[in-house]
Write the structure tokens for this entry.
Amino acid sequence: MNPTNAPALLTKNTALATLSPITDKHVFTYDKTRSTPTSTTVDYDTQLKTLTDLGITVDATDYTRSQKQKLVSLLYSNRDLFTSDICQL
């Protein structure tokens, strides 16, 4: 990983990674049918209040009501990705 995106000079025989064998018990198959639904059962006003309490202001004045509801639903379903305090990351 290069978070600064600055050029890095690697010398000969520099280890870039290590590989370790894993057993079959550490391999699993993704079953999409068991995934959680993306829609929420919480009403729009509750979603908006929760986002406001988290410090997320939704300014969708140019959106239709349907677009604004979809945006609020998207933000609400991903509310755990947002924080106003770096210590909560």
Notes: Residues 39-82 form one domain. The helical segments are 44-53, 65-77. The first helix runs from residue 44 to 53.
